[in-house]
Fold each of these.
Amino acid sequence: MKIVLLVGLGSFIGGISRYLVTLFVQNKILSTFPYGTMAVNIIGCFLIGAIYAVSERGNWNPEWRIFLATGIMGGFTTFSSFSNETVSMLRDAEYWPAFSYVAFSVIIGLAATFGGISLIKYL
């Protein structure tokens, strides 16, 4: 139960942070292009990389990694998890699984989004 609460608290912090960063960036760069979302994704990728690098040194309690990576970064952006998992596969020389993960996530994710929109729009 403690882990679930840590993830929930982290997600709360990450979700609010995502909203505030996106709003800040989008208000600074007046454009219809989603610079705010892109900034969140890039910041999240950097931060999850740093979190995992520090946690791999073995100096952290695993609960800190779960709170920061799964909780805060998961609430901030799941793109960071996607990126970290892909990098892990590439580091392990699992090239085909990494390529498949990227291709299927993007292609099927876009198709699923389009499908969800179409289903609701045309019902």
Amino acid sequence: MCILPSIDLTATGIRIAQLRQQTGLTVRDLQDIFGFNTPQAIYRWQRGLTLPTLDNLVVLAAVFGTTLDAIIVRAGAADQTRSA
């Protein structure tokens, strides 16, 4: 039986917040970039309640100057994110 990888939502949310802060952006800045009426989606991403859609992940990677792999944290790899 093959064990499939999964995404750690909480650690991915922490990573999104870290990358946002490292690039000097505010939640409001991201809200404006995405054209969202409210910042709730971004807060949900950062809290690990939801994941950005694939197209929004691509935009985040471009805005943060990184790759999708650097944003998404696989389950079991969360310790690396918290120490990053």
Amino acid sequence: MQLNNFLNTADFSTIFIIFIVVKFSLETYLKIRNISSINKNKDAIPKRFVGVVTEEEYKKSVEYNLERIKFGIITSLVGVGILILFTFGGLFNTLVKTVVNTTSSNIIGAVLLGLLLILVNQIINLPISIYSTFSIEERHGFNKTTKETFVKDILKNLVIESVLFSLMYAMIIAIIDNLGTSWWLYAALGVFLFQAIVFFLYPVLILPLFNKLEPLVDEQFKKPIERLLKEIDFKAQGLFVMDASLRSTHGNAFFTGFGKNKRIVFFDTLLKTITPSEMESILGHELGHYKLGHIKKSVIASLFLGFIGFYILDQVLQSDNFFISHGLDEITIYSKFLLFYLVIGSYTFLTKPISSYISRQREFASDNFSLKYTKGESMISGLLKLSKDNASNLTPDPLFSSYYYSHPPISERVASIENKLQ
């Protein structure tokens, strides 16, 4: 009852502005601290990286990271302006009116409004994406994306997002309309199963639309990796090399899918810079996430948070005051649902450092797992090469990294491994 009273009487217009200002101020402050940390250390290569990166490479990483952070401040400010335009500026309400005048169906309305939001979001983000790809990444030697590939990627993403989100929105609104007061339980479970299906199909249906995946045939890499997989008892659909060099020179490796569709994918750019022993160590780290139950824990946490999120949505949906205070006049089930997810990030941003901390602890644990099966020296040299090839920030501000970083700074990971080896 107290929650209902709060939702029906609170001045959410003021609360929303306060949260937006606090979020932007905090994140900008952390970015400025990070800029200061980089500038303070820019004149000398950090001790642990002497002999790993040249002065020219270090200067490149400094300039690259400074530009990215400064651009991040600008894009965050633009994001705030767009959010205010959507809410208090009435853009979201105008889109809702367009949909309401088109259909009386809540399900069709949710699909149409969702599609309009995706389209508008794509248009807004296009200049940011163009500048990031063809200016920042290009100027620092990372971009390999052609204009043709860039346009094709946008169109493919637009189609995929439209299909997937339309299906999900239609499902959620149908559940709200038809399954009574316990709808939020069914919605949370439905979204979880929907995401699981997409994740299962991703490596065979979606990923190949953007990149070519070819079996790993290089025996000098394949043999140690197969030995490691056998020793750890990990079964995958196969080892694949992805043509990441089509878009960027950044290197990486990842797992995708689950069950029969589990695949281990290496960027072709990665194979050009590291040794088989280093690859084995990096893969050992990735396998650690699976063997240590990190993936299962993430799935369980996702389901749990899904139930909490939909319960909160259920409570908020009962209060028109919340939505009117955020600039919505056209009150429908689907307009309230989509507005909630448009603004909720401004209220939950302080959960980010918590999730970042948990993720970093899992990274340390996976590093330790890899040490049991592979050479620690190879793990260190592989991480140092990755940081060099990706022009990673070698001197991040501690507060910035604790808020943003899902992986520990490279210097902390290397120090941790070295301590274990001693």
Amino acid sequence: MEQTTEQVPVLFAQEPEPVPQQTREWKSKYSRAGLSVAALYGTIGVGQSIAGIVIGIVIAMLLIMRVLPAFDAQAILRGGLPAILRYIESIKGTGIIALLLAVFVLVQSASWGVGFVVMRLINKKGTPIEKRSLSFGRFLTIALMCFGVWGVGAALGNLSAFFGVETQDMLGVEALGIEALPMLIYAVIGAPIVEELTFRKALCDRLHDTHEGYAAVVSGLLFGLMHGNHMQFFLAFFLGMLFAMVYQRTGRIVYTMLLHGMINLTASLPELFSLAKIDIDLGWNIAVGVLVVAGLVVLLVRRKTEPLLHVAPTAVFDANNATYRNVGMRIVRIAAVVMIGLQGTLLIVVGMLAADSDRFALHLIDLIPLTLVFLTVFLLPVFTKRYEAHAQNLNAEDCMEEAGL
């Protein structure tokens, strides 16, 4: 007699396929990258706190010793910001502000150095990037592209400026005058060096062998978030991606340092000239406008032929989720967004309180770039998913051909 077996209905879903080892390694690398940048945030925060304590102690000692007998705390509190500015003006000639700013810059630089070491320890070593040289003409072409994306990013982050709302003096040059020179030197020379070492070398050295495109996007994203405000996020995000591609394709961090320094110097020129009481705002605006338009034209013309703008799709399973859905990236993204949200809200509230009724609505425009920051951070995986390709559907040779490399 023939036996028959009755099929038992499937009551439970089948177990998911195991995640490939390559995907797990990818996820681990990006999680470490996020944690390393979170550690950098913490290191810089500790450094700034130490600098603030040192500066506070120095000021307190000066007041106790009556070096500044004209100081009147109650009058300053009653007078508000104008009284504070008058007080700063009264002590400019003593050199105290320049000394305190120099202390701040030194402590800030030291904290960046410690953060760089911590980042290298947290991230696993990657394969060395092959060294390639850029011709002078190619370097200038890339520099124009940098000015183009910088202009777009600056416009997105400073929409309120187009409607008559005065932008913030990030370095306090107008209030501090010549005493702000240490901060300007740091912005033009120090920042390009330490920021490129941390956000390009320390990150891309470890991430480039996963995928150049994802490494560039994550480097730019974390670089933008590091600035901690909605006004600088987009320009740092766009530039960070382009710098990352330059470094990954050349293996020479000096190129991105030069590009970064060029952008920061251009942005700081009005402040530098203002120290000598020279107003170059009109000429600077015209020159920067020409550079930005030229850069955007170069980007449009060369969007299909420029190797920096093309990356092959990845053949790693679930690469997009592995990049963003991990502990490290979640921590750093959420923490940075909260910080930007708090600072942005504070700036908007202060602006609205300081403005008259006719300008009240203009300050609300700052809510637009602030909202765009949040949308970019949380929706970025949607845009990068197009770079993902499963191994069974697209081999490496097809990827390279599709990217035009």
